[in-house]
Amino acid sequence: METIKRQLENIVGFENVMDDRASLMAYAQDQSFVPRCMPDAVVFVQTVEQIRKIVRWAHENRMPLIPYSSGKNLHGAAVPTEGGVVINMTRMNTILCIDDENWFAVIEPGVTYQQLQAELEPRGFRIMVPFGVPPDRSVLTSYLERDVAMAAPSFESGNALVLDMEIVLPDGEIFRTGNWACGGNPGSPYGPVRMMAYRLWTAAQGTLGIVTKMAVAIDRLPPQRKVFFLPFQELATAVHAIARIQRREIGTECFLLNRFNLAALFCEGWQVPRQYPTSKVSAETFDFLRQALPPWVATICVNGLPYYPEEKIAYESEALYEVCAFLSVPVLEELPGVCSAAEIMLQEMLRPWGILKKFNYRGAVHDVTFKAPLDSVPDLIDMAYNIAQDHDYPGADIGVYMLPLERGRAVHCEIDFHSQPDNENIRERIKALWFKTSQELIKRGAYFDRPYGAWANMVYNRAATYTLKLREIKQKLDPNGIFNPGKLCF
Amino acid sequence: MEAHQKKKVVPNRLPREVFQALIDVVGAAWVSEDRAIIETYSRFSVDAAQTLRQHQKDPTMLPACVVLPGSTEEVQAIMRIANRYRVPVVPFTNGQIGFCGPTNDQPTMTVHLSRMNRVLEIDEKSMVARLEPFADYAQLQAEAMKRGLWNGGSPLATTLCKPASQTAFAGIWQTDLKYGTLSRNIVSTTVVLPTGEVLQTGSDAVAGVRPFWEYGPGPDLLSMIRGSAGSSGIITEITVKLHPWPGGIQLPEPPAGRPCIHNYHEPRFDTASPPANVKLLWVEFPDYDTQIKALQKIAQSGIGMGLNATGVYNAYYCSQTQEMTLDRVKNRFFPPYNCYIILCGFTSPKQIAYEEKVFRKIIDEVGGTFLSPSYKEEVLEALQPWNLDCIRHVTGFRMNRHFYGSSIVPGGPLKDTAYKTKEIWTRTIETYGETYITDRGGVEDTPFLYAINRGGRFWLSEADTYPDATDPEKLQKAQVMAISAVADFVSQKFVPIGMGVLVEPLTSAFPETGPNANRLMRKFRTVLDPNNIFAPGRQVYTKEEFNNLPEETFQFINFLRTKYGLHSLSREK
Questions:
Q1: Which of A12, A229, B205, B515 could pair covalently with A16 via S-S, beta carbons 3.0-4.6 A apart?
Q2: Which residue of A has its CA nearest to B208?
Q3: How far apart are the first and last CA of chain B?
Q4: How far apart are CA B299 and CA B291, in angstroms?
Q5: Listed residues A157, A189, A220: the one ending a domain
Q6: Among A99, A410, A456, whose Cβ lies nearest the Cβ of B213?
Q7: What residues of chain B, 382 to 441, have a C-beta less than 8 Å from chain A?
Q8: What is the pLDDT of residues A42-78, one digit of tens each?
Q9: A174 and A284 inside one domain
């Protein structure tokens, strides 16, 4: 180990290598059910050249490397499987460029949502942020791992946010995708090589290379916005209404929360945690809201454009009222029982981390995250509630978030189960519930496109050729298997 | 020429056991090595390289046989035979653009997919359509529009194109401002690999999951298929996205009705109005700078379904005869600096009214002029073919110019794309001279500019050569012009082929791209095609193929590289 440490110190300097037990413990586990495993060392890098040297060294020495950007994946992607060296890129946190003219930003892996949004907003821009993302999560990793932005209902604005990428391959060579492939300006995911080459490295959990720079799309801040709430007693009714609204292309952001999640979001007694898991915090407001709010509430945000914003909002709002009148769905501009609900939601559109207050309920949240055709969602959610009941988990403690994708082609769903990290019995019970729910959902056609942890086997066991080809590609790119071994199907 | 005329072309032949094995798979009716049939089923409508080989009476430009499978299973069986006997395979649908002939001098099998031509399913709830590889855009649109949906666009190479084959190659639409090219509209593909294995991408990769989501589980293997120039396997099914369509079940007819063969060239048959809830507005600009400024503002204003600057291309698309085209090019009938926007009322008719108001405001701010009944009415009338072509493109193959010899399709941020294309294409034309007067589109006019996304971050441009296909010298010149322009772009670190389909010899000739994209793609190729049987050498050379390039090819590449300040290449050790 001493030799390893010395070799790493030669690359990044004495002060940037850690191998003491206390430091390593912080990297051995996150709040997920992925088993604990200590790395052998952690190195803090600051340049691409340092990363290339470490990768070459690891390649020669067959040493596992675990890329780490912000540690806020919360699904075990950066937890080692067999020791190795964690490459900590949190200090590579420079926003390299904000191009106001062509609407993109170039960022390093350590740049966080909070940091980038704060830089963009005074310039009149915003980064598209996924709902419920920790504010200090790496934007680069979040996009790379295909976290879904809140604006994803809009085909044009909320998707295809990754433009160009710079990747350090497992042999230490650099490869650039998009326009960058020619060495010039970024701005396109397509570039000259092969249109969608970059997608090979998405949702790869750092198993095929380390992305060291990314050009991401930014969008102009809407000059005016208006939020509407649609309350529903039944999920099926909500899904039907959302499908109709999306077909008319009304609104940019649109999502559905059950009353648990909505109550957590509006709970004044809770704060967004800094660490996950966190400590349990009681709050009367939460209990009150959970009783008072409708079972399901869809939130729709209509955005004005730079020219005549009020007119854009007017015709979209009119169409929303028209659809809802036809369906006999009330359209609310505020939520009864919640003070300034519309204002809070408008803030969430830019900084959607209020929902993370849900961690205060028990301390840890274990989500089952999947995609499904919109019409299949009521049955899938119903099934999840039944499984919870079988496991003696109260339905009222389940959190649900749904985000229609691309005008209702599909939906991104998150079902939350809450557990107490300091109570091993409860944790084990929730783990069994989480596992069973995941398993049954997959059997019923739910799609886990980002197979973290135990999901990987469930998914790849059902995708034989795909898995085989992924493994062959991995073997070609990373013959010594140094990059985050044990993840996905590798 | 006389010597050529006396030369007899004798196509290659496959070993008898291979031919018999193919018969066993598809039946004798669907496989042939008859000279007339293989020529019929392997015509290259626009491909300068293949046409040059025809002029040279190169027998290897003809496949040894054509086989027509009827199912994925038959394609699998064919690929296994090819893989076992190491017979090169090329897939074929329309053969509209190059890259469909044999790629080396070995007896090659053309797999013609014309029997697999059905729209298999339209899932209205998930807004997706599942197609066989020979189902075209027109079929897809007709079926989808019946259900209030559509696929988001059609290519200038016309709605005869197949989304499956465009997955391997292009797929640029007039409506990319909103829909972002075919790249953003593929949900899943079923691909028979050269080994005979079937790879499915997207959610379809997982047993029991419907094809509704585009990304594969974990790393996305559509990246291996899209833009592979038909060199990664045969797509036997594709699922594409559908989108809301407020334009009605049928597209409008021209007031004059439909033409007959004797009068199809009369302009009155190209005067249909746009579909319901769709509106086009045309603008001209005093100069290129104003045009570029306007395009950026419009693309970033959040309005419109499509935004394109069609420049001199209007003369090809909107002229009904060759004479009209030449006259209009010569006399600059169409404004050289123009653009049009496609508006659509998805939410309500008020959306069109709102977006038109915004558009007019921007044009007023930058100083453009609307074509209207009171300003250049005759030009506006002549542009009427676009009313339908922006949705369902049909006039592309009536384009009145000579052969489509070669092209560059630069991409990137607007100013980079627009100014660099004009600069480099002008330099190319000045250096080599045009092959036909229409090559000058992009020199005196706007090179074609397509807005590819809503924020205006990314644009594609295009400049083409149109040589006389009967003139080998001009065909050769067309090739040289394109490669020279590519070298010029690469040397300046700009993107010559922004739509992301690198083919040889460009892949290996410019290792600056990537860098060393050629070596990475070689690795991927050995995974998908370990025996190098599938269109070998089309997208990326193996080391052996690269080292076996003729000396004159090497010298030419190095001549261009040196000319543009790039280091010379050597054969690999």
A1: A12
A2: A445
A3: 40
A4: 12
A5: A220
A6: A410
A7: 411-416
A8: 999 999 999 999 999 999 999 999 999 999 989 999 9
A9: no
* Cβ neighbours of B213 in A, within 8 Å: 371, 405, 410, 447, 449
Residue whose pair of structure tokens reads 């007339």 in the numeric block: B36
Here the contacts of B247-256 (C-beta below 8 Å, separation 24 or greater) are B247/B145, B247/B150, B247/B275, B247/B276, B247/B277, B247/B278, B247/B344, B247/B391, B248/B145, B248/B275, B248/B276, B248/B277, B249/B145, B249/B146, B250/B145, B251/B145, B251/B275, B251/B388, B251/B391, B251/B392, B252/B276, B252/B387, B252/B388
Tell me, yes or no, whether A19 and A147 share the same domain: no
Q: Can you list the residues of chain A whose pLDDT is less than 70?
A: none
CB pairs < 8 Å spanning A and B: 310
The closest of B434, B435, B450, B437 to B340, measured between CA atoms, is B450
d(CA B95, CA B310): 25
Q: Which residue of A has its CA nearest to B179?
A: A156
What is the gyration radius of the CA atoms in chain B, in angstroms? 24
CA torsion B399-B402-B405-B411 (nearest 10°) is -40
As a whole number of angstroms, the distance between CA B283 and CA B418 comes to 18
Question: Is B513–A182 a contact, with Cβ atoms under 8 angstroms apart?
Answer: yes
* Sign of the alpha-carbon dihedral angle for A324, A326, A329, A333: positive
B447 and chain A: CB distance < 8 Å anywhere? no
Phi-psi region of B148 (alpha: psi -120 to 50; beta: other; left: phi over 0): left
Given this model, what pLDDT does residue B31 score? Answer: 98
Pull the structure tokens for residue B26: 């598809």
Q: Which of B203, B241, B409, B489 to mutate to test the interface with A (most CBs of A within 10 A)?
A: B203
pLDDT tens digits along B60-76: 888 999 999 999 999 99
Q: For position A202, which CATH number holds?
A: 3.30.465.10
Nearest to B493 among A184, A193, A207 (CB): A184
Judgement on whether residues A257 and A204 belong to the same structural domain of the protein: no
Residue A276 lies in a domain: yes
Contacting residues of A for B178, CB less than 8 Å apart = 155-156
Percent share of chain A, pLDDT over 70: 100
The separation between the first and the last C-alpha atoms of chain A, rounded to the nearest angstrom, is 25
Question: Hunting for tokens 């050769």 — which residue is that?
Answer: B476
Contacts of A450 in chain B (CB under 8 A): 217-218
Q: Which residue has the tokens 């996924």?
A: A130
Check whether B449 has a pLDDT greater than 80. Answer: yes
A-chain residues near B527 (CB < 8 A): 469, 472-473, 476
pLDDT score for B1: 44
Q: Does residue A374 belong to the interface with chain B, where contact is any CB pair within 8 Å?
A: yes
Q: Which domain holds residue A37?
A: 2-88
B516 CA: distance to closest CA in chain A (Å): 8
The closest alpha carbon to B89, from B228, B15, B194, belongs to B194
User: Quick check: B513 and A193 CB within 8 A?
Assistant: yes
The total domain count for chain A is 3
The reported pLDDT for the residue numbered B398 is 61
Query: Strand B109-112 and strand B65-67: pairing?
Result: parallel
For B137-162, what is each residue's pLDDT tens digit?
A: 999 999 999 999 999 999 988 899 99
Are A172 and A203 in the same domain? yes
Share of chain B above pLDDT 90, in %: 76
Q: Is A175 helix (H, G, I), strand (E, B) or coil?
A: strand
Q: Is residue A454 part of a domain?
A: no
Total residue length of chain A: 490
Nearest to A126 by CA among A228, A257, A254, A225: A225
Give the model's confidence band at B5: pLDDT under 50 very low, under 70 low, under 90 confident, else very high: low
Q: What is the pLDDT of residue B6?
A: 64
Asked whether residue A23 falls in the same domain as residue A103, the answer is: no
State ipTM. Answer: 0.96
User: Is residue B170 within 8 Å of residue B234, measured between CB atoms?
Assistant: no
> Helix A2-12 vs helix A48-61: angle between axes, to the nearest 10 degrees?
150
